[in-house]
Amino acid sequence: MAKENPGQWFVIVNPNAGRRKGEKDWLEIAALLQEAGIDFTSVFTKHPNHAVKLARKYVEAGFKKIIVVGGDGTLNEVVNGIFTQKKYATTEITLAMIPVGTGNDWGRSFNIPGSYKKAIDLIARENTFVQDVGKVKYQNSHLVKQRHFINMAGLGFDAMVAKRTNKVKREGRSGPFSYLISLFSSLINYNHKKVKVTMDEAVLNADVFTMSVAICKFNGGGMMQAPNAVPDDGLLDITVITRLSRLLVIRNVRKLYDGSFLKLPQVKTFRSAKVEIESNPPMYLETDGESLGHTPVSFEIIPLAIQVIRG
């Protein structure tokens, strides 16, 4: 590895993304990158969280531009590698994505095309946008841990659905409807939690079904769970859905896709730079679709923290 590679792209490929599309389509993607005149070095990930280590290692070796070939989970790992390296300010790093995952929710907010050629054309143009990044501290096995995220975090029912979806992915059965199938199967066993949410200008005590803490608008494969989120406003968008029946959930699933669920009386929305969440019993947590630990959790926003390639 060269010591400084400021103009060269480092490409992190998740071969398992999108039911192994990362591996199956890599030769096509690599040819398109070369055709677009993009100078790059590439490495395949070999295990969960490998992209964290790769991003950290190669940024510290001098790469300032990273392309993710994968889904939202791989993107999340790369962001965490960037935020744990010591060589450059995170705003000096440029992050791009060629989506091959099953969800690709972050890319929806930035009009990243599903076509490999169109996504690569965007990268070649290097039209950048500086967005906020979230940081969350949470409990896992009696230890306090920390994670960064670039799109959205979910707690409660949302985290349970993410956990089921990830299990289906590991078994090689993921697809465009895997999140919906996990959603309906999770309804059978899920119970509300008593939750206290402390924000900059409000405190909420409620029986909570699910909640999200968002930078961007989409999760769950196109559900607009934070329709008013602005990724560079220095604030987290908090959506809390309080106690509601299983039947009401089923009847209103379609409203998650256009954001109209916000009109339901059980839905409350807030904006805050910091959020603390306590619950009894503990509520589980996911960030960018990756299952983590549980409450108590605390969130904060890092304003204008990383450059991304956008549509």
Structural class computed from helices and strand pairing: alpha+beta
The SSE string, one letter per element, is: EHHEHEHEHHEEEHHEEEHEEEE
How many strands, which pairing sense, and closed or not: the largest β-sheet? Answer: 6 strands, antiparallel, barrel
* Biggest sheet, spatial arrangement of strands: 7-9-8-12-14-13
Percent in helix: 25-40%
Provide the domain count. Answer: 2
Q: Which residues sit in consecutive blocks of at least 5 with pLDDT less than 50? A: none
User: In DSSP terms, counting alpha (H) and pi (I) runs of 4 or more, how many helices?
Assistant: 9
Molecular structure report:
This protein has 311 residues and is of the alpha+beta class. It has two domains: 5-126, 3-Layer(aba) Sandwich (Rossmann fold); 133-303, Tumour Suppressor Smad4. The chain is 27% helix and 37% strand. The protein has nine helices and 14 strands. The chain has a six-stranded antiparallel β-barrel with strand order 7-9-8-12-14-13. Strand 8 (193-199) and strand 9 form a beta hairpin. Helix 3 (50-60) packs across helix 4 and helix 7 crosses helix 8 (178-186). The longest helix has 14 residues, at 157-170. The radius of gyration is 19 Å and the shape is globular. The chain starts with a strand and ends with a strand. The model has no long low-confidence stretch (mean pLDDT 92).
